[in-house]
């Protein structure tokens, strides 16, 4: 049986690569300019400082953008793999529910407790002790009912 073709996950590409390449070109230009100024000799001037600052800054920008692009690509691949895993799990659960011979083999989805088993606060589940105490109390009287009046 042939594996169905799945769409490729989103991976940061053209735009991120453009900015990384652009920073690399500018860094190379500044480094070449600094090298030419250094080879010509002479005292260090403001032009030397400008070339050194530009070379350092653009190199760091290129490295940071490159690392960011690599992290985004890695995260995109992990996200796509996680989505595939979730689809496989849900499909297997669906197939198991459809192929189950008896309803006891499939774990049912959680449902809200019946109205009589709710705790005094919304969403709170009663503890086993509360259930035992409520069995001893007369029906129709909840804990905390006097406080609500």
Task: Give an account of the 3D structure.
With 149 residues, this protein is mostly helical. Helix content is 63%, strand content 0%. The chain is built from 4 helices and no strands. The chain is elongated and about 90 Å long.
What would you say about this model in short?
The chain is mainly α and 149 residues long.
Helix-strand makeup class: mainly alpha
* Main beta-sheet strand count, sense and barrel state: none
Spans where pLDDT lies below 50 across 5 or more residues: none
Shape, per Cα inertia axes? elongated
Average pLDDT, to the nearest integer? 76
Helix content: 55-70%
**What are the secondary-structure elements, in order, as H or E?**
HHHH
Helix segment count?
Answer: 4
Radius of gyration: 33 Å
End-to-end distance, in Å?
A: 68 Å
Instruction: Tell me the β content.
Output: under 5%
Tell me how many strands there are: 0
Notable traits:
149 residues; 4 helices; mainly alpha; 0% strand
Describe how the helices and strands are arranged:
Layout (H helix, E strand, L loop, with lengths): L13 H27 L5 H54 L28 H9 L8 H4 L1
């Amino acid at each position: 049986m042939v594996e169905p073709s799945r769409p490729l996950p989103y991976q940061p590409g053209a735009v991120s690569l453009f900015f990384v390449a652009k920073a690399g070109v500018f860094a190379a230009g500044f480094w070449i300019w600094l090298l030419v100024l250094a080879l010509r000799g002479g005292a260090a001037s403001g032009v030397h400082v400008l070339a050194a600052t530009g070379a350092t800054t653009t190199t760091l920008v290129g490295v940071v953008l490159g690392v960011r692009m690599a992290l985004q690509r890695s995260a995109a691949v992990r996200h796509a793999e996680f989505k595939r895993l979730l689809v496989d799990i849900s499909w297997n659960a669906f197939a198991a529910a459809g192929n189950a011979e008896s309803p006891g083999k499939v774990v049912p989805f959680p449902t809200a407790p019946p109205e009589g088993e709710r705790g005094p606060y919304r969403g709170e589940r009663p503890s086993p002790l509360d259930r035992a105490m409520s069995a001893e109390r007369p029906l129709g009287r909840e804990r905390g009912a006097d406080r609500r009046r």
